Amino acid sequence: MARTRKAEASEGKAPETGVNAFVGKDELLKFYQDMLLIRRFEERAGQLYGMGLIGGFCHLYIGQEAIAVGMQSISQKGDQIITGYRDHGHMLAAGMDPREVMAELTGRAGGSSKGKGGSMHMFDIATGFYGGHGIVGAQVALGTGLALANSYRNNGNVSYAYMGDGAANQGQVYESFNMAQLWKLPVVYVIENNQYAMGTAVERAASETAFHKRGVSFRIPGEEVDGMDVIAVREAGARATEHARSGQGPYILEMKTYRYRGHSMSDPAKYRTKEEVDEVKTTRDPIDHIKERLAKAGVTEDDLKGVDAEVKRIVAEAAEFARTSPEPDPSELYTDVYLEAAE
Amino acid sequence: MPALSPTMEEGTLAKWLVKEGDTIKAGDVIAEIETDKATMEVEAVDEGVIEAILVPAGSENVKVNTLIARLKGEGEAAAPAAAAPAAEVASAPVAAAPAAGGPISAVSTFADPEIDGKPLKKITVRDALRDAMAEEMRRDDRVFLMGEEVAQYQGAYKVSRELLQEFGDRRVIDTPITEHGFAGMGVGAAMAGLKPIVEFMTWNFAMQAIDHIINSAAKTLYMSGGQIKSSIVFRGPNGAASRVGAQHSQDYAAWYGNVPGLKVIAPYDAADAKGLLKAAIRDPNPVVFLEHEMMYGHEFDIPDVEDWVVPIGKAKVRRQGSDVTLVAYSRMVGFALKAAEELEKEGIAAEVVDLRTIRPMDHATILESVKKTNRLVTVEEGWGPMGVGAEIVARITEFGFDYLDAPPLRVCQEDVPLPYAANLEALSLPSVEKIVKAAKAVCYR
């Protein structure tokens, strides 16, 4: 059983999971590959940013990989994912084409939004990824609306609405919590608490820093999860999903995590010490963590080399595509403002 | 007849609960009155004996301030003055005088190809909007209505009357008072392929939700390279009601009209209210639908045909004239038509263009009119700077400069927050007199 701490909610006590969250060797290997892909992809994105190929804002997910990957392992076809601006990891975990994601970062025609969205604004209905939103907290109301649509259609799908510890202080988050529980909507709120809202440490911004308790006054159960442990994420995700999918309403997961890089590319991260960052990297790194589990399952470093090479190839290909894909045709300037046909 | 809502101008004396000769004391319920929004009980404020009931039960269209009963020993005006209303819009004041200038409702005065030849029926703007929603909800299961008081209360302005009864609480959803949240949820549901109608009790309250209207709904189709659509209608009363103060009295046409990705509609009469709302619901884009509280109770002829839909983006010439073009939208169309009647008496033939849609704006129709009249006055309830009139004047200057015989003028709300005092409010808002004055000025008369 992974480390979790549960919030006391007067209704809907966190259930013991009825979902089989057991993970075998093949699944562990897949988690490793998915997490490594995100890390290598983000490292390359940082590099392309430095080369001037990526402009504007670029928020990297390095350090938080276990969350997107662990949660994705629980979701089913038709479930939706929605998040804020630190979204590359969720898109890759959801199964979006790394080439299209990277080409969107470089603002090219081959990007998933034809180059018109950028780092913070990518979408892919096929994989259930609904963005990619740049206004902090907006995705929580939108994600609750996706759950409203699931409930309206009674389709058994769950919406996963991700937010950071910064977004978790926004008013509309609580408006959404209230309605989600009132109407028992199938939504899992995933709070990625990486300790800093841009440069503001949680203790300086939050009167209650235990974000998993933020649903208590709405009777929404919540639990704190080690967001650096993909298996813990998966187990908690299974409990939360079961709760939401079975019609019991929303569930809050607070993922304790850490981002290794600055808030965005232009952030020197002077608000924390190098020692603090190094401490997390050496003792809590999510990829090291799964490597230990793989070792226990009998997988050697040599066995992982094939995976590493495959990831390297995918990222190199994505970077090449993003570099060589042409800029959008000027005629795209005025497309996609309105849809024509009435329905 | 007591005024029981900010916009009540007349009411129906549904029932007397006392009779002549009865002794009453303050607080007794003496009658039931149907207002434009609800049936209200009227309590006596004085005590005494009812000497005479002057307006019998069942009387309709009794004007506010009409004497309805007299107490013994009091020569006049002993009728109950006001009551504690059970039904009231959130934070709106209780009693108020009718709108400055009284009801203004003028009808089209020439052949109208959209309507001519069709059977007509009389219907209020309120019921036209209701029917539009009901018809579209019957037609498409993806359409649903959410907002404050839309279901059990039957709508703060009774626009959603009986929709809950017909469609149930899955499709007519009462929300908490939480505009930011439910507007965002509406957009999320639209992204998932549903077609929500989000009602704001007034557009003033939508200020809390404007981020989702613009950042989430209007921009996402573009930001997603055409993948994510938001087929959603945001609707509710816009502009100044009557004596409800600055925070409840703003015209947002220019604000939303500024935003690519949104369509913005502001109908005047019942036919357009119905036909354009149906078009808005079917439209695959996010639509801001600006109604007017002062128009809800007005009756108009509407084509009595199945599936009356009016295309978005087409202005309507409501009166033809050769001397000056008056461009208006929403309630101001009635003012402009009234002004045209006044101008006619002075030998000035005004053409009245009803914009109907603010975005995309039908500049061609305005330009065609200006080519004929060579003079332009715009009328809007909102503020002038960066306003709808400013946009029209800029366009006409750009594309019709050679046709102008006089600098265009704008009639707008004065550049102040809307005052509460009746006289100041009237001074602040556009009026028929102001329009007449502006029209004469551009005609150098």
CATH architecture of the largest domain in chain B: 3-Layer(aba) Sandwich
Spans where pLDDT lies below 50 across 5 or more residues of chain A: 9-18
Q: Helix/strand-derived class of chain B? A: alpha/beta
Give the structural class of chain A.
alpha/beta
Strand residue percentage of chain B: 15-25%
Q: What top-tier CATH class of chain A fits best?
A: Alpha Beta
Number of DSSP strands of chain A? 9
Given this structure, which CATH class of the largest domain in chain B is correct? Alpha Beta
Total helices of chain B: the number is 12
Average pLDDT for all residues of chain B: 91
Spatial order of the strands forming the largest sheet of chain A: 1-8-9-5-4-2-3
Total helical segments of chain A: 11
The most extensive interface between chains reads:
A-B, 49 and 43 residues
Strand order, main sheet of chain B: write it out: 10-9-11-12-14-13-19
The coarse silhouette of chain B is globular
H-E order of chain A: EHHEHHEHEHEEEHEHEHHH
Number of strands of chain B: 21
Task: Report on the biggest sheet of chain B.
Answer: 7 strands, mixed
Domain Dehydrogenase E1 component (chain A): 34-330
Pfam families (chain A): E1_dh (PF00676)
Keywords (chain A): Oxidoreductase, Pyruvate, Thiamine pyrophosphate
InterPro entries (chain A): DH_E1 (IPR001017), PDH_E1_Alpha_Subunit (IPR050642), Pyrv_DH_E1_asu_subgrp-y (IPR017597), THDP-binding (IPR029061)
Task: Describe the model.
Chain A: Heterodimer of an alpha and a beta chain. Chain A: InterPro entries: DH_E1 (IPR001017), PDH_E1_Alpha_Subunit (IPR050642), Pyrv_DH_E1_asu_subgrp-y (IPR017597), THDP-binding (IPR029061). Chain A: One of its GO terms (biological process) is pyruvate decarboxylation to acetyl-CoA. The complex is a heterodimer of chains A (343) and B (445). With 343 residues, chain A is an alpha/beta fold. Chain A has a single domain, classed as Thiamin diphosphate (ThDP)-binding fold, Pyr/PP domains (Rossmann fold). Chain A has eleven helices and nine strands. Chain A has a seven-stranded mixed β-sheet, sandwiched between helices. Chain A has a two-stranded antiparallel sheet with strand order 6-7. In chain A, strand 6 and strand 7 form a beta hairpin. Chain A is globular, with a radius of gyration of 19 Å. About 3% of the residues of chain A have low confidence. Chain B has 445 residues and is α/β, with parallel strands linked by helices. Chain B folds into three domains: 62 residues, RNA polymerase II/Efflux pump adaptor protein, barrel-sandwich hybrid domain (OB fold (Dihydrolipoamide Acetyltransferase, E2P), Beta Barrel), CATH 2.40.50.100; 184 residues, 3-Layer(aba) Sandwich (Rossmann fold), CATH 3.40.50; 127 residues, 3-Layer(aba) Sandwich (Rossmann fold). Helix content of chain B is 27%, strand content 22%. In chain B, helix 1 runs parallel beside helix 7 and helix 8 packs across helix 12. Chain B is globular and about 75 Å long. At the A-B interface, strand 3, helix 5 and helix 6 of A face helix 3, helix 4 and helix 5 of B.
